Model the fold of this input.
Amino acid sequence: MQKKTALAAGLTGFGVNFVLFLAKLYIGIASNSLAVYCDAINNLGDTFACVIAIMGFSLAFRLGERESLRAQSLADFVISLLIAICGIYFIYNGADRLLYPLPVSYSTRYAVIISATVFVKIFLGVFFYHINKKSPSPIIKSLLLDSFLDCFITLFAVLGLFLSNKIRFAIDGYFAIFSGIAITASAIKSIINESKFLITDKR
Done:
C-alpha cells in the first residue's frame, strides 16, 4: 500500500468520524437519548482508532515487510481494544439507564439527521473497501468492518430514539446494551485474531 493512500484513508476516516461524533453528541444531549449518545461515543472511538491507524501506517512504512505487517497488526490490536472498551461503556450505561430511566425528547429533525449519518458510514465503508481491495491491510480491514457495523448501531440508535417516544419505559437502555454487546463481541474476535498473529506470525 502506498504511503499517501494509507495516510489519506486514515485522515478521511478521522475527519468523517469526528464530524459524526459532534453531530450525534449534540443530538444525544439535546434529546437525552442514551442510544444516540452512545453512538456518538462510538464515533469518537472510531476517530481515535483512525489516529492509531495513521500512527501504525507511519511506523509500518519505516520498517521491512515482515515488521510492517506486525506494526499494522499491533495497530489493529489497539484499535480493537479501544472499540471493545466503547462496547463495554455502552453496556454499563445501558444498565444504568434501565435502573434510573430518564425522559427522551423525540424530534423528527433529529431522527432524520441521525438516519442520514448511516449513509455517510456506508460511503466510508465502501471507500475503505476499495482501498483494502487494491492493497490489503489489517488496519484498513478493521476500519472497513467497523464502518459497516456502525451502520447497524446507528440504525439501532434511530429506532431507540423513535420508540422512546412511543414506549414509556427506558427502551433506549436496551438498545445501548444490545449495541454494546455487538461491538464488544466483534472487537474481541479481532483482538484474538491479532494476538495470535503477533505471537505466532500466522493468521
About this structure: The radius of gyration is 18 Å.
